[in-house]
Write a structure and sequence with these properties.
There is one protein chain. The chain has a single domain, classed as Aldolase class I (TIM Barrel, Alpha-Beta Barrel). The protein is 52% helix and 17% strand. The protein contains 11 helices and 8 strands. β4, α5 and β5 form a beta-alpha-beta unit. The chain binds erythose-4-phosphate. Erythose-4-phosphate binds next to α2, β6 and α7.
């Protein structure tokens, strides 16, 4: 039977990470340059290194994905080595290709995994076929952006199902991460479709937990509890 890894948190917010870590429900963290920027990281390398090290330390030994900020091959290699040296639980996010396409990124993924012993999360993928190639190249994680797939009018669950079937058939060990969550329902649906990991925003996790009817029910229990055994 297939064993799923579980939920990752798609954020660089230390408070949110702590909040969900304390519930015992997260199994890793993913970041990207957009997330870091949106969550207020400044001061260039210094700011980025400080935050990524803090996250890695806080969740250790859970994995943390940190994405390269360049698409220039030498620069990506340099950054990958740098990130991996920040903490043992950091893995490096490399996009499947550059802004104009190309095969260089996948070559680097292969080299990082096989020659440099660095774990890679291949990111920004929109199809099962891209993920399959990344898995064949040796990536530890393959990240499918489910919400963006849906936004383009395709059914992300179909891509996840095809990918699951192919990775299993080829006996490839890559873990499927599905990210780009847009709705609470994405989380369960993507796990059911075959994801090993869903990386969700803190807001969606809260939406998964809190139900208006549960609130109403709890209110009623508390009111009746007061009548039953009044507490001063
Ligand atoms: C996944 O690892 C990415 O960080 C993320 O889920 C991207 O989502 P977006 O489409 O909201 O940018």
């Amino acid at each position: 039977m297939r064993r799923l890894t579980g939920l990752f948190l798609d954020t660089s917010d230390l408070g949110e990470i702590r909040r969900y870590q304390e519930l015992g429900i997260i199994r890793g963290v993913t970041t990207n340059p957009t997330i870091l920027l949106k969550e207020g990281i400044r001061d260039g390398w210094e700011g980025m290194e400080e935050r990524c090290r803090q996250i890695a330390q806080q969740v250790d030994p859970l994995p943390v994905s940190v994405e390269v900020t360049t698409n220039e091959p030498e620069g990506m290699l340099d950054q990958a080595r740098r990130f991996a040296a920040w903490a043992a639980n950091i893995n490096v996010k490399i996009t499947i290709h550059g802004p104009e396409g190309g095969t260089e990124n996948l070559k680097l993924v292969h080299e990082l995994e096989k020659e440099h012993n660095i774990r890679v999360n291949v990111t920004a993928m929109m199809s099962a076929q891209q993920c399959l190639l990344a898995a064949m190249a040796g990536a530890t994680y393959v990240s499918l952006f489910g919400g963006r797939v849906n936004n383009m009018g395709y059914d992300s669950r179909e891509e996840i199902r095809r990918l699951r079937e192919l990775l299993d058939a080829f006996d490839l060990p890559a873990k499927i991460i599905v990210g780009s969550t847009r709705e609470v329902l994405n989380i369960i649906e993507w796990f059911q479709a075959g994801a090993d990991i869903v990386t969700a925003t803190p807001k969606l996790l809260e939406g998964m937990l809190v139900h208006p009817y549960s609130k109403e029910t709890v209110k009623q229990f508390l009111q009746d509890g007061q009548r039953l055994v009044p507490v001063a």
